[in-house]
Design a protein that fits this description.
alpha/beta, binds fe (ii) ion, globular, 6 helices, Purple Acid Phosphatase, chain A, domain 2
């Protein structure tokens, strides 16, 4: 155990899938974000269809959180066409959306926390085509998206000079958190390039969502801790405590 001022507390969740005019199953869970959390990281799918009315309902739930909030968009959020207006709904209640640049959050320990994130994409892991072929057209567009998103994450991480760095994507960076997801769906759930980017930069933690049937804890090929923070997986807000590196402690 570390003294409280030598740690950073990260709360995380994803996959709220809020629909307009429907009481969300997660409305009361959002209140479980600890009052002393340094940040709430949301790994996407705040809404079901990316509609503005859904964004308003989802943002109203998140507005109750007092911690600073940082989010990436999920594939469901990206279904809507009015993407700028969609982001602005969340920004109005204090959710900063990671688009290109990373975000730096000051913490109670006095040390800055750096967060870089992208939506990410499918693309798969080594067992890719084991359970049948993927349509060629889907594969081509996914390969392009995969490359673009991994590059964006790479560039955002290269900008971060904070003593603690977290990578976030909606899609999974490893198959180790895919749990009970059938291997025939793995190609839609994430890709290994995201994890390799994080490995190259030596981040402290990787958070993702999207794999609703996945498992909560895994790691990248390079051994970076990965948490699948999807609400259907954990049933609650995930709270992670990271030690502040001794060298980084303010004097
Ligand atoms: Fe989802
Ligand atoms: Fe998703």
């Amino acid at each position: 155990m570390y003294p409280a001022d030598r740690t950073v507390t990260i709360a995380a969740l994803s996959d709220l899938h809020v629909r307009e005019g429907e009481e969300s199953a997660w409305a009361s869970i959002v209140r479980n974000v600890p009052a002393d959390a340094d940040v709430l990281i949301i790994a996407g799918d705040m809404t079901e269809n990316g509609w503005l009315g859904e964004a308003e309902a989802s943002a109203a739930m998140l507005a109750e959180v007092s911690a600073p909030m940082v989010a990436v968009l999920g594939n469901h959020d990206l279904r809507g066409l009015r993407r700028k207006a969609f982001r602005e709904v969340f920004e109005r209640v204090g959710v900063q959306i990671l688009v290109d640049d990373p975000i730096v959050v000051p913490t109670r320990s006095g040390v800055d926390l750096g967060i870089a994130g992208v939506a990410g994409s499918g693309g798969g892991f080594t067992m890719l085509a084991e359970d049948g072929p993927i349509p060629a057209r889907a594969l081509r567009s996914m390969a392009l998206r995969m490359r673009r998103e991994a590059l964006k994450l790479d560039e955002a991480l290269a900008e971060l000079k904070t003593p603690i760095r977290i990578a976030v994507s909606h899609f999974a960076p490893t198959e180790t958190t895919l749990g009970a997801e059938p291997s025939s769906k793995w190609w839609m759930l994430g890709n290994r390039d995201l994890g390799r980017v994080a490995d190259r930069h030596g981040v402290d933690l990787f958070l993702h969502g999207h794999a609703h049937l996945g498992s909560p804890v895994g790691e990248t090929e390079g051994g970076i801790p990965v948490r699948n923070v999807a609400l259907p997986v954990n049933g609650d807000v995930v709270v992670i405590t990271l030690p502040v590196p001794e060298m980084a402690m303010p004097r």
